[in-house]
Amino acid sequence: MKSRNSVAVLGPRGTFTEEAAKKMFPGRGLEHYDTVEDVFEAVDGGAEYGVVAVENSLEGAVNTTMDCLLEYDLKIRAECVMDIHLCMIVLPDAGKEEIKTILSHSHSFGQCRKFLKKNYPKAALKRYDSNTAAIKELADLKPAGVAAIGPEAAAELYGLKISRKGVEDAPSQTRFAAISKKEGSGKKSSIIFALKDRPGALYHALKDFADNGINLTRIESRPAKKKLGEYSFFIDFEGSLDEVKVKNALLSLKEKTTFLKELGSY
Amino acid sequence: MKSRNSVAVLGPRGTFTEEAAKKMFPGRGLEHYDTVEDVFEAVDGGAEYGVVAVENSLEGAVNTTMDCLLEYDLKIRAECVMDIHLCMIVLPDAGKEEIKTILSHSHSFGQCRKFLKKNYPKAALKRYDSNTAAIKELADLKPAGVAAIGPEAAAELYGLKISRKGVEDAPSQTRFAAISKKEGSGKKSSIIFALKDRPGALYHALKDFADNGINLTRIESRPAKKKLGEYSFFIDFEGSLDEVKVKNALLSLKEKTTFLKELGSY
């Protein structure tokens, strides 16, 4: 049983998601889970809120989050954008030995692809469920010639040394969402839909928003998981699901979709 | 120097990409590279063709391929869709011992997420640059209690045993593209563009295609790598870049974009 008052986040301690959760829910108790899917499962099972990463300005959508938003019957309740700075992290007694292996999350590797290619072209990259899990493994096993990439806070938390700050290829931001079973309210909303297969289908779907003066802030496509060429669309837009113009757009959109799911206003 | 006649593919031997390359270029010599980016680099440096995975029907777009199509000045010359079947692969003398660690590519893990959650909820997942790299490591190091997920052909190639076939959550297909420096021709085309920031921007961009009777077969957004909320759009459509209706649509689209790149017809 999850405590009803807790906030589920991606663990272990020290992840960017934890930082986002502290910002969104100051003073609340956090429960750490191994994967994004486990966070959704926890909220579905009784945790009041969960916090998950949605997209990064360099690496794009977090696929697992997208797929879980589709699968689980949960709502988006709030969002929060954080600047992401990544560090090269080594053992406290590391000298000038060659770094042969680097540990991190695949998204973090994606965010410093050019840095790695230039400075560590021969290093093997080992991927973990979170960059903090990678940092924890480095701290636990203390292997020689191994570094990790992740947040400064996590390096400090696990008693490791930062060999270089700001290794991301460009300034980067990540958007986090708070999810819960209950619906919220707010000036921004998200929906997911799949379209009937006909020429210009997406164009006609977007027309419903344009005709009603609704500004889209994001569109992502994810495979519908049936066959290639069939997609679900994730759309964020300015406006509440309660507003008349939004209701009108969704009513018209519904006729063109094979399914339409509201993720709530926040 | 790359041999001018060769086809660059993701290695090591036995990857799905290698299978796709053999289907697209029967009888041609293959050169294996460690990462998707290395394949682009090889073609940029003189290999006549490269073959890369573009999208999977379960896991979606291959982000590195998308980003490299944007970065490198290369064209899409052909495409090929393959059915993907994944196997649980173990050491030839494996008995009934518990599987504590599973090795594969993150996309393959994504394709059998439910299978893993049901059958190996506690197994640690270790990610590699390709599922064949994971299989090769299993064959080389022969660790106890470790399995890999990947193609049947690779299991046979590295002398391993298949403990279960068809572990993917649903039938899955991957689309591969052949890339080269030279432009090709064909009835399908791909472009990338970024839009000036104004309300309904994407809607008006898609209108150019709808007005000219051009059917879009795929749209993907990728972050523009500057700040959250700015995206590049990857569009595949039916029609050749030589056709008048396509030229008209692109001429009109160009006025709305901050950049527009043609990836060729194939």
Q: Would you give an account of this structure?
A:
Chain A is α/β, with parallel strands linked by helices. In chain A, 30% of the residues lie in helices and 34% in strands. Chain A has helices at residues 16-24, 36-44, 63-71, 106-111, 113-119, 131-141, 152-157, 201-211, 244-254; strands at residues 7-10, 30-33, 49-56, 60-61, 75-84, 87-90, 101-104, 124-127, 146-150, 161-164, 172-180, 188-195, 216-223, 231-238, 257-265. In chain A, the strands form 3 sheets. In chain A, strands 1, 2, 3, 4, 5 and 11 form a 6-stranded mixed β-sheet that branches. A 5-stranded mixed β-sheet of chain A has the order 8-7-9-6-10. In chain A, a hairpin with a 7-residue loop joins strand 13 (216-223) and strand 14. Chain A is elongated, with a radius of gyration of 20 Å. The model of chain A has no long low-confidence stretch (mean pLDDT 92). Chains A and B meet through strand 8, helix 8 and strand 13 of A and strand 8, helix 8 and strand 13 of B.
Please outline what is shown here.
With 266 residues, chain A is of the alpha/beta class. Chain A is built from 9 helices and 15 strands.
* Total number of domains of chain A: 3
Low-confidence stretches of chain A: none
Biggest sheet statistics of chain A: 6 strands, mixed
CATH fold-level assignment of the largest domain in chain A: D-Maltodextrin-Binding Protein, domain 2
What's the level 1 CATH class of the largest domain in chain A? Answer: Alpha Beta
Report the sheet-strand fraction of chain A.
25-35%
Order of helices and strands of chain A: EHEHEEHEEEHHEHEHEEEHEEHE
**Count of distinct strands of chain A:** 15
The oligomeric status of these chains comes to homodimer
